[in-house]
Amino acid sequence: MEDRLQNSISTDQLFKEYNWFNATFPKVIQESFNEFFNPNFRLELMGISKNINCLITTESCFVTKIRINTEYDMFFRFTDRAIDIILNKILGQSKNKFNINKISELEAKIITSFNDFMFEHLKPCLSAPPQNEIKRINFDLIHLTFLIKETEEYNKKTGKIVVTLPIALLKPELVKSKNEKFSENDFPTSTTIAKALIGKTKFSLHDLKNLEIDDVVVFENSNLENITITVNGQELPVKLNPNMDILIPQEDDGGEHMSEAHNLWDSIEVEMNAEFDAVKLSLGELKNIEEGLVVDLASLYENNVTLKVEGKSIASGTLVIVNDRYGVKINNVIAESDGTVRTPAQNQNSDNESEEYEENSENNSEEDNGEYYDENTEYAEGAEGGEEEFDYSDFELEDENI
């Protein structure tokens, strides 16, 4: 009997009843505060729960129990913060921090009198007790938790007030749909956002730092006939027919600079993964994926692919096939820490500037040959003259100098 009553109302049912509770009790309780204390406080319903109220488990409360009849009671719980807000407004600001365990007789009488006043306003919201008698220890309770604060905007303090009512005396109305419900035929054509993952690979820090446009990164664990679709964190394997038009010869599978690492730090490997930009899939297609059927994802081949390390975008490019593995031909490299992108045109300009610098450096070396050079003096004069400081990021070191 007790277990049956304990589970007599489900969370789903509370969702449907919430609108009735919200339309019935906040208005009555707010009017009670306005009449008893004047419009000094604002109440807001913040939660509804059955039997166990987790919103005040760690807070001290002043509890008032009011007998409705021989079988049912109503409870009012005021947290110490709520009482502090009320008393400071009604009796004036106290010099000492409020302690609910040291509440005075006057303070307790104010709260208790208000609870009696509020009960009289709430009685019309209660239904008549049922005819069949139920033992007092077995009835279910609904907890309505309210936030209370002063109406003045400058006072940001908030407290909690919990009104506890027996379910047997409530007749909540369920929310009913006013519009026609969805037809099951509508769902297969509805779309959702999904991500397509190509694969993962290990990449050394040396190769990562030297990643350039037109390089090709091959994902060793990829499979031409399978990719992975993720929807809301759930991974679904997808079978597909590879588009062989994106096949490239094996000799184009990487840049010349991708060589062995030259020190301990550069030899450290990180995990790099490749994923397409978000695509839209119909729920019907997702259903087919779950059944293991081949899904037509031809549009993916024309979609941008992003390379990521630890969730951060490193580069982007287009999908290619190298032998029996998927790869990505780099079109853009995330070059700066602020997220700016180095494009092929910018990469060409950078190469031209580098060649021009080398030519000028040779000419300057011939002119300065045999002259005394003081590095400290040159640096100081450059600083005073407002010239730009030397930026090592503009130049690349040759492998033999690393």
Description:
- The structure is a single chain.
- The longest helix is centred in the first third of the chain and has 27 residues, at 11-37.
- 27% of the residues lie in helices and 28% in strands.
- It folds into 2 domains: 2-169, Chemotaxis protein chec (3-Layer(aba) Sandwich); 191-344, no CATH class.
- The strands form 2 sheets. Strands 6, 7, 8, 9, 10, 11, 12, 13, 14, 15 and 16 form an 11-stranded mixed β-sheet that branches. Strands 1-4-5-3-2 form a 5-stranded antiparallel β-sheet.
- It is an alpha+beta fold and 402 residues long.
Q: How many separate structural domains?
A: 2
**CATH fold annotation of the largest domain:** Chemotaxis protein chec
Number of strands: 16
Regions with pLDDT < 50 over 5+ consecutive residues? 1-8, 252-257, 365-402
Helix content: 25-40%
Summarize the biggest pleated sheet: 11 strands, mixed
Q: What is the element string, with H for helices and E for strands?
A: HHEEEHHEEEHEEEEEEHEEEEHH
Shape-level CATH architecture of the largest domain: 3-Layer(aba) Sandwich
In what range is the share of β-strand residues? 25-35%
What is the C-level CATH assignment of the largest domain? Answer: Alpha Beta
**Total helical elements:** 8
Gap between N and C termini: 80 Å
CATH H-level homologous superfamily name of the largest domain:
CheC-like
Structural class: alpha+beta
Molecular shape: elongated
Average of per-residue pLDDT values: 75
Radius of gyration: 36 Å
